[in-house]
Amino acid sequence: MNLDTSFPYQLYLVISEQDCRGKNFLHVAERAILGGVDVIQLREKNLTSDLYLAKAKQLKEITDKYIIPLIINDNLEVAQKVGADGIHVGNRDISPRGIREVWYSPRPLVGYSIENLEQLKNEQIPLSDYLGISPVFNTETKKDTITEWGLRGIVEIRQRTDKPLVAIGNIHIQNARRVIQAGADCLAVVSAICGSEDPEKAAYELKNEILK
Ligand code: TZP
Ligand code: MG
Fold this sequence. Notes:
By secondary structure, the chain is an alpha/beta fold. The chain has helices at 25-35, 49-65, 76-82, 96-102, 150-160, 173-182, 191-194, 199-211, and strands at 11-15, 39-42, 70-73, 86-89, 109-114, 130-133, 165-168, 186-189.
């Protein structure tokens, strides 16, 4: 458990239209919030900025309705134009420092994915609001990943930082509790909710595992 309250969220939905496999992604998002998701990231790949922005605007209507933060993956222009609450980036994207230099008001939430322990020493860490542990377990949803952290990796990161830790990668109801016990503060999922027949129930059950 961390002592940092800058990211007080526990169940994080990472969503794209494609990952919802024919279901309406806005409907999935809304049901997921009703089930207990408390922060949402829109993560669209291979879209023009105009199309990305259009989807972000639609999703923002829902996150605003329920007053939960909207985070945009890796597109500063879209994040700022839509008035998102924050942006999530990886090692190969614009850096947290680069974001802070151009976007300071209102202060955005900045998430930063960690792929190795060395990265914990770099200057981007203090500029991030939370760290993504990516991926905890290898996943079909994102195949270009580097490190499979495993539960041991979460423990090692937890020993080295007080930053809020968001675990992502093949997290499902069966392993959710163990990921929290290893030291994650928040669970981020795609398929456990987007791929479910009942996103509200899936979110509710995951939230219960976290709160147990
Ligand atoms: N970053 C690391 S793993 C991942 C992302 C976006 C995908 C996680 O998807 P799933 O379906 O929850 O394994
Ligand atoms: Mg990225």
